[in-house]
Design goal:
Blueprint lengths: L6 H27 L2 H14 L8 E6 L1 H7 L5 H15 L3 E4 L10 H13 L3 E7 L5 E2 L13 E3 L3 E2 L6 E5 L1 E4 L2 E4 L1 H10 L3 E2 L6 E4 L2 E4 L8 E3 L9 E3 L7 H4 L3 E6 L8 E3 L5 E3 H13 L5 E2 L2 H21 L2 H23 L3 E2 L3 H63 L4 H32 L8 E4 H18 L3 E4 L6 E4 L1 H17 L6 E9 L2 E7 L7 H4 L10 H6 L7 H11 L3 E7 L3 E9 L5
Parallel strand pairs: 1-14, 1-15, 2-3, 2-15, 3-5, 18-19, 21-23
Antiparallel strand pairs: 3-4, 6-7, 7-13, 8-9, 10-11, 11-12, 16-17, 20-22, 23-24, 24-26, 25-26
Helix pairs in contact: 1-9, 1-11, 4-5, 6-8, 9-10, 9-11, 10-11, 11-12, 13-14, 14-17
Bound molecules: adenosine-5'-diphosphate.
Length: 611
């Protein structure tokens, strides 16, 4: 991360950070799978923006409203078809693909006869068949059907159930063990004079030199249609004679375009409604120009999204501030542009996964960074103030022995003292420098204890020893305030641990009792053994504390208002050290106190019977 931290800490932080990014990735990727409509929308926008770079090879000849009007309505459908085919013959198209199912005989035999004749007289004819809901083929009547069954193509669509837009056409449909290719594909095969070739395990369909990439694992081998607006001419049946030049040599798709009568109307990605016959022509153009769109594999979408998530993680892992935001903006732009870039290269890449992953992972990583950095700053800040206070404490504690040493040595050098007095002063210097050394040692030990770096000494010592030594050291202090200090019971038991530290702890309780008690009161020490438990209590008749204050006294640097007001110097660190020492020894500390009445601090330790 951007700020300085301990090696171990940064390692676990890095794992936590990676976890945040991974969770964001999983969430975004999961959500993106639900983004079907959004993906469709993005696809449609990209489709609408693409342009045709080729001239059409097909023409739609439509039975439109005008035609129906002239012939007397949809009942005259067969007559119209016969007429259209007869007219088309003179225009010499390359082939005629019919999009009108001729499954039933009509009521007028002569009409059917005329249509049959017209069909037979049409060279290169492709006829449609329909797949019924009961999975059977609805083929043209045998009298209308082309001699070669390979010239029959199905007219099914793969309409998206989410939004009813038809983006794909299933090239292959199998029913009753019979495979039928799509009308547009059959038209291509007839137009090029090449057979349609495939193998059951191949993802490609071949027509001559053309390779059509269609997934074999998806039912129907769907092909995405490259819809292009206004590129394929639509000519009314009534205008065939006058537009022969536009029809000559072209692949004609003949069917109903009338809004009212068209059996199948499809919505395309532009939002336009197209007649089926126009959509077949669009599919044919897609095939004829080899202008295919293939879907990106699921695993490549997954890997690309994963890559984006990792990039977002790395950006906020290694950069902070505006460089991170600038890089992230580049990443977001990349993720949004990737599907567009691939679309123009014929690959349909789901839009939502990379975009959702990029956004969510960026937000997650940035938020984590903001939180982490702030926490780190707060920690450094509190560490700094802790050290300041600790140093302050050490300096304060050392002042008393230093003053004693300084004073005594000054007296000794300045005056010629009687031997006895000199001895007394040098003993004092000796004991005070030892105390100084002890304070320094304690300070260092406590710091190491707080860092969890110190192993406690484990040596046996008599509890009575430390109690006596502390009482001896504190007595002069107590006497100055005319406080009577008494040991109320015999101390028994051997403790196991660090004698210096335990002595420091008990000494602290005693000095506090003296410090926070008014003159002419009593401080009593009790010892109580229960089996393996030794309780050492210091009871005073001092200012006491209320329950709210009691909750905080073991916090570092906390002092009660009463203590501050009393004028007694202190740093508020002593009790926190006492508590640490006692708990590190496997013991605990208890306090009972009442404002104005006094306090009782009890150290509870495991002890063995004295030897
Ligand atoms: P210090 O004595 O340097 O302020 P301590 O950590 O030893 O620091 O004590 C923390 C606070 O707990 C004291 O400032 C005082 O407010 C309160 N305290 C400790 N012992 C007593 C006591 N015996 N009676 C009343 N208050 C006490």
């Amino acid at each position: 991360m951007a700020s300085k931290s301990q090696p171990g800490e940064s390692k676990s932080a890095a794992w936590r950070y990676a976890g945040v990014v991974a969770a964001c990735f999983a969430m975004a990727f999961g959500l993106a799978q639900l983004g079907g409509r959004l993906n469709n929308y993005a696809y449609d926008v990209m489709t609408a923006r693409s342009q045709a770079a080729w001239a059409p090879q097909s023409v739609v000849v439509g039975i439109d409203e005008k035609t129906f009007e002239k012939f007397g309505g949809p009942e005259a459908r067969r007559l119209i078809l016969a007429q259209a085919l007869e007219d088309l013959r003179a225009a010499q198209p390359k082939l005629v693909a019919l999009d009108v199912i001729l499954h039933d005989p009509s009521l007028h035999a002569e009409e059917d006869q005329r249509l049959e004749d017209a069909l037979r007289a049409t060279p290169n004819l492709v006829m449609p068949c329909d797949l019924l809901p009961n999975e059977t083929w609805e083929d043209p009547l045998p009298r209308f059907a082309p001699g070669d069954p390979r010239r029959i193509g199905h007219v099914e669509w793969a309409t998206d159930r989410l939004d009813n837009v038809t983006r794909q056409i299933p090239l292959e449909q199998i029913a009753q063990h019979q495979r039928r290719w799509a009308l547009s594909l059959v038209a291509l095969s007839v137009a090029t004079g090449q057979p349609i070739v495939t193998e059951s395990d191949s993802s490609n369909i071949y027509v001559g030199g053309l390779t059509i990439p269609v997934p074999r694992d998806v039912q129907g081998r769907p092909l995405r249609i490259r819809y292009l607006r206004g590129v394929i001419p639509v000519i009314s049946v009534l205008d065939i004679a006058s537009k022969r030049d536009s029809i000559r040599g072209k692949v004609v798709f003949l069917g109903e375009t009338a809004q009212t009568a068209a059996r199948d109307r499809l919505q395309n990605p532009y939002g336009d409604y197209l007649s089926g016959v126009e959509a077949h022509a669009q599919a044919f153009e897609t095939l004829a120009h080899g202008d295919f769109l293939t879907d990106a594999r699921d695993y490549s979408v997954f890997l690309a999204s994963l890559g984006i998530a990792v990039a977002a993680g790395l950006i906020f892992g290694f950069f902070a501030g505006w460089p991170a935001y600038v890089l992230d903006a580049v990443l977001l732009a990349f993720a949004s542009y990737l599907p567009v870039f691939l679309f123009h290269r014929g690959i349909v890449f789901a839009y939502t996964p990379p975009v959702a992953v990029a956004w969510l992972c960026s937000i997650g990583a940035a938020a984590y960074q903001a939180l982490f950095v702030r926490r780190q700053l707060e920690r450094t800040e509190s560490e700094r103030s802790r050290y300041q206070k600790a140093i302050h404490w050490a300096a304060h504690e050392m002042r008393t022995p230093l003053t004693a040493i300084q004073g005594s040595s000054e007296i000794m050098s300045r005056y010629k003292l009687p031997e006895e007095k000199g001895k007394e002063l040098s003993e004092m210097i000796n004991s005070e420098s030892k105390r100084l050394a002890r304070i320094i040692q304690t300070f260092l030990d406590v710091e190491r204890l707080a860092e969890g770096e110190m192993e406690l000494k484990r040596e046996p010592f008599e509890a009575a020893e430390i109690v006596e030594s502390c009482l001896k050291r504190v007595r002069p202090l107590a006497e100055r305030k005319q406080i009577r200090m008494t040991l109320e019971s015999e101390v028994e038991g051997t403790l196991l641990g660090d004698r210096e530290l335990m002595e420091y702890a008990f000494y602290n309780l005693l000095t506090n009792a003296v410090k926070y008690s008014p003159a002419q009161t009593r401080v009593r020490v009790f010892a109580d053994s229960h089996g393996e438990e030794l309780r050492l209590s210091v009871k005073d008749q001092g200012m006491g504390m209320d329950s709210k204050e009691l909750k905080s006294i073991f916090k570092k640097f906390y002092r009660t208002k009463r203590a501050e007001a009393s004028g007694e110097v202190g740093t508020g660190i002593g009790l926190s050290i006492v508590e640490q020492i006692v708990t590190h020894h496997g013991g605990r500390i208890e306090v009972a106190s009442e404002p104005g009445k006094g306090s009782c601090f009890t150290i509870v330790m495991r002890a063995h019977a004295s030897a």
